[in-house]
Structure formats: C-alpha cells, structure tokens
UniProtKB/TrEMBL annotation, chain A:
<dbReference type="InterPro" id="IPR017871">
    <property type="entry name" value="ABC_transporter-like_CS"/>
</dbReference>
<feature type="domain" description="ABC transporter">
    <location>
        <begin position="277"/>
        <end position="527"/>
    </location>
</feature>
<keyword id="KW-1003">Cell membrane</keyword>
<comment type="similarity">
    <text>Belongs to the ABC transporter superfamily.</text>
</comment>
<dbReference type="InterPro" id="IPR003593">
    <property type="entry name" value="AAA+_ATPase"/>
</dbReference>
<keyword id="KW-0547">Nucleotide-binding</keyword>
<dbReference type="InterPro" id="IPR050388">
    <property type="entry name" value="ABC_Ni/Peptide_Import"/>
</dbReference>
From TrEMBL, chain B:
<dbReference type="InterPro" id="IPR000515">
    <property type="entry name" value="MetI-like"/>
</dbReference>
<keyword id="KW-1133">Transmembrane helix</keyword>
<feature type="transmembrane region" description="Helical">
    <location>
        <begin position="274"/>
        <end position="300"/>
    </location>
</feature>
<feature type="transmembrane region" description="Helical">
    <location>
        <begin position="100"/>
        <end position="121"/>
    </location>
</feature>
<keyword id="KW-1003">Cell membrane</keyword>
<feature type="transmembrane region" description="Helical">
    <location>
        <begin position="232"/>
        <end position="254"/>
    </location>
</feature>
<feature type="domain" description="ABC transmembrane type-1">
    <location>
        <begin position="94"/>
        <end position="297"/>
    </location>
</feature>
Automatic annotation (TrEMBL), chain C:
<keyword id="KW-0571">Peptide transport</keyword>
<protein>
    <recommendedName>
        <fullName>Oligopeptide transport system permease protein OppC</fullName>
    </recommendedName>
</protein>
<feature type="transmembrane region" description="Helical">
    <location>
        <begin position="344"/>
        <end position="364"/>
    </location>
</feature>
<feature type="domain" description="ABC transmembrane type-1">
    <location>
        <begin position="175"/>
        <end position="364"/>
    </location>
</feature>
<keyword id="KW-0812">Transmembrane</keyword>
<comment type="similarity">
    <text>Belongs to the binding-protein-dependent transport system permease family. OppBC subfamily.</text>
</comment>
<dbReference type="InterPro" id="IPR000515">
    <property type="entry name" value="MetI-like"/>
</dbReference>
Amino acid sequence: MADRKETILTVRGLKVDFTTPDGTVEAVKGIDLDVHAGETLAVVGESGSGKSQTMMGIMGLLAKNGRVTGSARYRGEELVGLPAKALNRVRGSKITMIFQEPMTSLDPLYTIGRQISEPIVHHRGVTLKEAKKRAFELLELVGIPEPARRIDSYPHELSGGQRQRVMIAMALANDPDILIADEPTTALDVTIQAQILDLLKTLQKRFGMSIVLITHDLGIVKHFADLVAVMRRGEVVEHGTAAEIFARPKTDYTKMLLAAEPSGRKSPPADDAPIILEGRDVAVDYTLSPGFLRGGSSVFRAVEGVNLRLRHGQTIGIVGESGSGKSTLGRALLRLLPASGHYRFGATDISNFDRSAMRPLRRELQLVFQDPYGSLSPRRTVGEIITEGLYVHEPELSRADRDRRAVAALKEVGLDPASRNRYPHEFSGGQRQRIAIARAMILKPKVVILDEPTSALDRSVQQQVIELLRDLQAKHGLSYIFISHDLSVVRAMSDYVIVMKNGRIVEEGDTDAIFEAPKEAYTRTLIGAAFNV
Amino acid sequence: MIAFILRRLASAVPTLFIVVTISFFLMRFAPGGPFNLERPLPPATMENLMRTYHLDQPLWRQYMTYLGNAVTGDFGPSYIYHDNNVAQLIGKGLPYSMELGFYALLLAVIGGVIAGTVAALKQNSLIDFAVMSVSTIGVTVPNFVVGPVLTLIFAIMLSWLPAGGWGDGSFRFLILPIIALALPQLAVFARLTRGSMIEALNTDHIRTAKAYGLPVRSVVITHAMRGALLPVVSYLAPCAAALLTGSAVVETIFTIPGVGRYFVLGAINRDYTLVMGTVILVAIFVIVFNLVVDILYGLLDPRVRHD
Amino acid sequence: MTDILQVPAASPETKGRSLFQLALIRFRRNRAAMAGCIMLLLIAIFSFVGPFFSPHSYDQVFPSYVTIGPSLEPRPDASTLQEAMEGVATRARVTLTEFAVEGETFTATVTSEQPIDPRSTRYFDRANEFENTSVVVTEDDGRTMKVQGLVDREYFPFGTDSNGRDLLVRVMLGGQISLAVGLLASLVSLGIGVVYGATSGYIGGRVDNVMMRLVEILYSLPFVFLVVVLVVFFGRSFILIFLVIGAVEWLDMARIVRGQTLALKRREFVGAAQALGLTDWQIIRRHIIPNTIGPVIVFVTVVVPKVILLESFLSFLGLGVQAPLTSWGALISEGANNIQSAPWLLIFPAIFFVVTLFSLNFVGDGLRDALDPKDR
C-alpha cells in the first residue's frame, strides 16, 4: 500500500460490546482501520460481522446497552469517549452518515427541506431561510426532480430512491470530510441501486471527500472502493487494495465471499416435455377501499394479460422490480387470489375451481416464500410446521409415519433431523429457508413457485440454497417458477426468463438469449444494474 | 377539511340515533319504574302520574314522542326533580362540571406529559422509578380514597382549603377536586408518554438526528416528542369526554353541583328522561372530542390527511 | 453465515425452547414481576384460605366491640374486664375483693354480709364477657366465695367495623370477592372479545366494517354509566356484577384481537398455510389464535385491575355486592366515610387493594417485556 494520501481517520483496537441478559456480547473485537483523504474504504462482511456496529461506535450511535473502547482519531482528535456535545461538532459536519433504511431514516413529520436545513443551521449558524436556499441547491445537486416543489414534501411522498437522495443531500450539506454510507443501496431496487452508487461516485469526484462504504455486496465494492477491509465475527480478517483483494484473496473466507456470486446454469427440458401449468390472459385487480365512510373505491390492476406455460422439468424465472406484479402473478397461477383468465394444471381446467375444489390439488402445487422469518409460524415446532401439509392431505398417516416423513424431508434439505423438536427462532435465515423448502417438498409436489427464496439471505448462503433447489429439481423432476429481482440468481436457476414491468410482460425468452442479447431497454437496465458494468 | 368535518358530523347522527335507541329500550325492558317506591302509591295517584308522563302509552309511541322532542332540544321533564326539566338540569350543572374538568384535563395532560418525558429520558434511573411508582399509585388508588384523604389533610388537619362545595366559585374551592379528578388521568398520560417516548427515541430517524450532531434539545423536542405525542393525543378524546362531563365520585365527595351526579341519581331512581339526557350528553361529548382529536392528529402527522 | 456447516449440535432428545418457555425464562429474571407474582399468591392465600383459620365468620356481629381499633392484645383488656366484673358484682349484690385474668380464665373473690347463694354465678354468665362460671371454694360460712370461669376474649388485629364485625375476616372476604370479580369479569371480556375480534378481523371486508362500527357505537355510550344502569336495573347479585362488567369491558379486547388478527393475516405463514390447503377454521385454530395469545395475556393483566377498580366504584355508589357480603371496594368506601373517627377501616382494606393492583401492574409489565421482546 504505497503512497496513499494523508490518513484522516485512524481506528486502532476498537472494541464494541453489548450487555445483554445472557452476558456480554462482543460485536467488534479490537479492529484497526485507516481512512485516507479522498478515497473510498469498503468494509465488507456478511450480516452480524460487526461492520455497522464499528461505525455506530465511532459516531456515538450505539444502543443504550452498547459500549465502545479503543481509539478512533479524526485528524488527531480522539472520538471514542468524547462527550456528546463535543462529538456533535464533528457529527453532521465533518463526518456524516447515510443509512440502509431510507424509509425510516427521515422523520416522517417534517418536510425534507426542513430536515436538510436543520444541520446547516446548527453547524453553520445561518438562518433557516439561508439554509433552505442551500437545501434547494443540494436537492438539485442530488438529482431530485422539481426541487422547488419537492423541498416542501414529506418523506412519505417520495420513493425509496428519492429518500436516499435526500439523505445524501443532507450528508453533503456541510461539505464533510468523510461520508459513511451504511448499506446505502440494500433496500432499493436494482436499477435505483446503480443510480445511487453513480451519484455517490460523481459527488466524490467533485467534492473530494472520503467515503466509508459498509456493504455485504462485493459486486459494489469492485467498482467503487480503493481499499477493502473484510470483516468476519467482529474481526478484520483481510485488508488491502480492491485490486489486490479481488485478484489474490488470501483467506479462505474472502475466497468464499468472492466465489459466492451464484454460479451454474440449468439446461432447458426437452421440447416435447408436457405442459404442466398454464395461465392465459391472467389479470389481477386490487380494490383499494378508502375506508368505510368515504365513497368510491379505486381499482388497481396488478397483473394484466399475462400468458405463461410451464413445462415439466422447466424453471421459468420471473424478474422485475418491486411492484411489477411478479409475486401477484405467482399467487394467481396457484389460484390463491381472485384473478381472471384461463388456467390449466396438467389436463385439468382449473379456471373455475374455488377454494375447496383447489384443496386436493394444493399438494401438487406448492409455494415457498421470500421471508424465512415470516413464513414459519413462531409458536410451532419445525416438525409440526413441515408436517402440516400431511395433516391436510394424508390424514390417514399415523404420528410415527409423519415423524418418519419429517426426518426424511429434513435430511433431504440438509438439516439435522433432531431439529424437528426445535422452534423456528432458533435457526438462522438460511436454515429457516431450508425448513420452508422441506415443508413444500414433503408433499412431493409437481410444481413449486419460489417467491424470492434467496433474497433475504447472505450471498454465501444463497449459493447453497440454489444448489439445494437444483438438486431437488433433478431428483424429483420438479417444475419451478422462480420469482426474483436478483438477476444473477435467476440466471443460475432458470432456463426461461420473463421480464415484467407494471403488471405486464415486457420481454421473454430463453435465459441465455435474454442475458446475452436483451431487446428491451428496460431489460438492459436491469441486467446492467445487476452485473455492475 | 371542512368537507371532512361535515362528513364526520353527518355520520354522528346515526351513531347518536342508535345510542338513544339502545339506551331507551334497555331501560324500559328492565323491571321497575320511576314511581315504584318502597311504599306503594295509591292506584289512582299512580294512574294519574303515569298519564301525566305518558307512561301509559305503548312503548313504541313513547319512543317516537321522545325522539321527536329530543330533536327539538326538549328532553322531557325529570321525574325526581319536579321543578326542572332535564335540559334545565343539565344546563345548570354542566358549567360546573366543565370548569372543573377543564382544569383537571389541563393538569393531567401537562403534568403527565412532562413526567413521562423525564422518565423516558432517564430510563431506569431513580427519577424514572419514582415517576413510575407515583403513576402506578395514581392508577391504582381510586379517587374516592384520594378525595377523603386530601380533605382530611388539607381541609381538616391543615385548614388550608375548603372541604367542599362551590362557594363563590373562587379557585380555592376547586383545588382539591381538580387534584382528585386529575390524578388518575395524569398517571395514565405519564405512562403513555413514557412508553411512546422510549419507542420514539429508538427510531431510525432519531439516530439520523443524532448522527447529524443536532443538540439534545432539538433531538428530544423537535423530533422525538412530536412523534411520541400521537398516542397521547389519541387518548385525549375519551379522557376529555370523561372529565368534562363530570365525575359522580368527585362531585359527591366535594358536594359540587355538577352533572356527574345525575348519571347515578337518574339511574338509581329510574328517572328515564334524566338518564336519557345524560346518555345523549356524554355521547355528544365523545363524538365531538373524537372529531377534535382526529383533526389534531392530522395537524401533527402529515401522513394523515383529511380532505 | 456459514450456516450449513453449523447444523445445530443437537442430540435427538434435545427439545427446543418454545417462545413461551423463553418468555417464562425472561419473566423469571424480572425481579419486580416475580415479587408481584409472589405478593399476589400470598394475598390469594390470605383471602381464600385465611377464613378457615379465623374463629370469626364474616357476618358475626360483636355488639360489645363496635368500631374498636386494631390491636394485637386480646379484647376485652384487663381494665375493661375489671369494670365488667365490678358491674356483675353490683348486680349480684356482692363486693368484689379480688379479680385476676390469666389467659382464657378468670378468678374472682367476692364477699357479702350474708351467705352468698351459689346460684348467683348465673349473674357472671349473664355478662357477655364471662362463661362457665363455677364456685371453687366457699369460705367464712358462705360469706366469701371464690369463683372461676372462662373469659370470652377475642382477638381483632385489624379492629372491627361500625357494626362490630371483625375487619380481618371482612378484608379476607372482600379479597375473595374482588379477586373473583376481577378474574371472572376479565374472562368474560376475554371470551367475548377474542371471538368477536378474531371473527371480525379474519373475515374482514364488509362484515368487519359493520362489526367495528358497532364497537364504535358502544364506545360512545357512557360506559361506567352503562354498568350503573345494568346493575340498578337487573339487580346486584355477585354473578350479575361480573357478567355486567365483563360485558362492558370487552370492547378494548375485541379491538386488540382484531388488530392482531389483521396483522397475522398478512404474515407469510398464514399464506403458507393457505397454500398447503388448510381450511379457514384450521388456520384460525392452528395459526391465528396461538399467535394472539401474547398480547391477549398482557391485556388481561390490564383488565383485571381495571375491573377491580370498577367494582370498587360500584361499591362506592352503593351498587356493589350486598351486605353482609363485601368487597375491598365496599370496605374502602365505608372506610373513606369514617376516615376521621376510624382510619383503620380505610387503611387495612386500602393496603390490600393497592398492593394487589400494584402487583398486577408489575406482573403485567413483566409479561409485556417477556412476551413481546423488542430485541428479537
């Protein structure tokens, strides 16, 4: 690491620990970091690695039960242990932060103009009027359309991407030395992610501040950072320039992270494979009822005119941004919500099947959800959860038979069968997703709709779940509909891709064709954003 | 906004109608009547009385008559207070109850919010513990205990304040009843404020405000407080309606000529019209304060818009 | 994380800890809540078991001991007995020369100028205080007589009320009634509220609108007043009182359960259950109800003290349970009326009442923290 620029933030032996009823938990175990003027340091790690808590500790933002020790010097001034008043001279003026959750990081009760102005007034001692003028310039700078009107908007009137731009405007307001960006794009759609990162890059070039980027996404790091520190379980396991880390990772952990980009491809089924699930002219309307006393309800069309044919052994990937109607389409195909159109399952026309008529078919048509925390009832054991389907569809099974099936299903998804007596909250996200998959597979279904099954998981776990799903598909001859906003995962899973926007299909075709030669501009944007070109 | 208020007021009409209907029939189906005294009246007198008050007519007819009169503001004669009709009784008593209730509400809200905020800011400290203990006492000790104890200490032992009555209406007479009335509500406000303030202090946008070096005063008052007050404001409606329409207990203990006592006296004596009058009074207060609170809520929270 | 590598190292016998068990562990750690629990248990034992160990019954009247203060000494005390004995002596036309009380027995020596008729012991027995008087020795040709008998001495550690009833036993009885009303009324409100709220929330749509509209209307009825009307009109029996209070208190419960149900309906595990083909009733039974239990339990600990307070309010208005039955509320309001002349009538029931409500509060707070941990 020769001839780097002046070091402006030096972290030495920084520790963060939390007092909990179960004893003290060490979140950060004495780490060293250096931030150089005008450069970007990426702190990379999976969830729970302590990367966020490091920054929170330095900025004096830990939860009440947290404690920070060690040293963090900003241009020679020790920040650790500084009383709040003294720290407030640095926070928001010399060092600023943007956070992961643009939805909640802004106060919902004040206009964005007022919120951007507040730190300006406070740190520069100007009047609110002058600060508002600066806020207007900043909104223009970060690319908020119609800043004159938007300055008086409330956060809930803005989209997620716009709110993150507002946060960036706020961060730039006092010409900071260091901008700490804590997972700034994780909660945003892929296309928005790219825009926000571009904005940060441009602004850095223009104002020359240092950026500390905290992220779990190595794809971002490669194109963005000068220096990289890899964290695991509260320790920095490897650090160096971005080029070094990507070219010659030293530790196994870093290698695993780098390899974690989903890999592998699926070959399409034979052309004469029978069609197992078909939907024609699928359309779904949501009625937005405005409340009991207000007349007139409005109708929102979530899916319109979609045709889809799933062949035996095929995986169709459905991609699109949030709100594109891809999840709704999945549920409509399973007849889980009222939708118009024609549907066939195998040779049966199920267009007019009601709930009770669908019930016997449910065992053949399964669904796996995105959120492994929400999809398992917290008050039932894993055994009860995964055998629930048997209870409905094979009521003749004895308790012992059900238990045997549960053991087999857990083994199949790579979990210890002893887990069946435990409760969901005792498992990690990846393990929970395996439980959810076991619940679907125990019924030996023909079609499984996978609704963002990997989106809530860390990269390295994603790869494992993808491999598991592919193995199960090969073993049992399953057909999948794979819904995701993450194109790299879709590419690894499916042999046919449908791109959706605003409830309609904009493009569809074989996976390779779509990824190699996308026809539509929208598809190109999605691909560009996902693979960080 | 005006459209919203008008719509809400219009929707209050069916509510009031149902309230009146439920109360009317509930009372009439219960055994006993206003003139079934311990010593039975001579049948002729009884018949006379029944005729005077139209109680001999079929029930639906009485109901229609009552509804018709109530719309014009005539709530009928009181059966036990022969000199006055119900409207006059309420008209006389209400100003006393409302004055008392207003001060009590003021004390409860201001005291409760301040105590709750302080407790939340010093969470788990001695101050927090003290505020929570006092407010637990406030919630748990009924005001028919607080009233006599206050009288004993401040009126009888120390002779600082009058023991009861309205006197010339000067503030000295109001102090003890206000305290007795306000204490339980003050405790509720303190607990509510503390809870929502602790929650508000842990939100992401408070973290943002801290990260931008805003001074504690601005973080607490501008950002945390406004959000924390929302649940407090919601509680304001039932609380204000209850305080302003008088408390039977406090008015009895401090011999205050308010409307609170009529609730109980009317019910015990089966004074149908007086009971109906008080029911309608309370229902109107509840409806009006719900509306006021909804408007306040909209002003505090830009996410709620009434248009 | 590296999750497949660390499959939980559980032997087949390991049982996981359910959320409920975890909550129990958190609850046990909370000292204030545990103290509240123990306090409540002690008060319940005092109220329900105590009467079996008391020689007095709750409606037993002691005309000689009206409104006497609390004391650990037995009643009557030595000087009162002396006076009583002197009164007896005067009535029997004898002179009392010696009088002593030891425990439950007394000895007295009386003299007269004429020989004393042994039948005059009946004068002794006629007094409330003395019993089973018998002649021990007769001296001086019957002019001096030593008699012995039992003294009827009573203990009133809490004093007596204005009717001469033992306050200790009455506080026990009041506890029985107050606790029973609190619990039963809460169960009634729980029953109505859970069924109503869950139905409204799960069915949703128009049914939900209408059901919640009804709740709103009931809210605008003056609710304390409604209780008063119901009690006045339908009588004052114990059963009616808790039914009436429960029937009025269910509104909040219904709202809470409905809110919970609405939130649960959106959770993915309910979606998963639908995808598995469970029927509505199976979903409500297996997924909705078990998951509403936490907030419902917490709310019950709020309702119980509220109900006890409401019952005491009714008692204050003279609409509570009928004498000679009593409740803490009735005792307190009686005490409040006699606060100057007999403060103990207020103090003892008020202590039990406040301690109970305090404990319930701490238990409720503890349960809330245990069942609804923010740090998931």
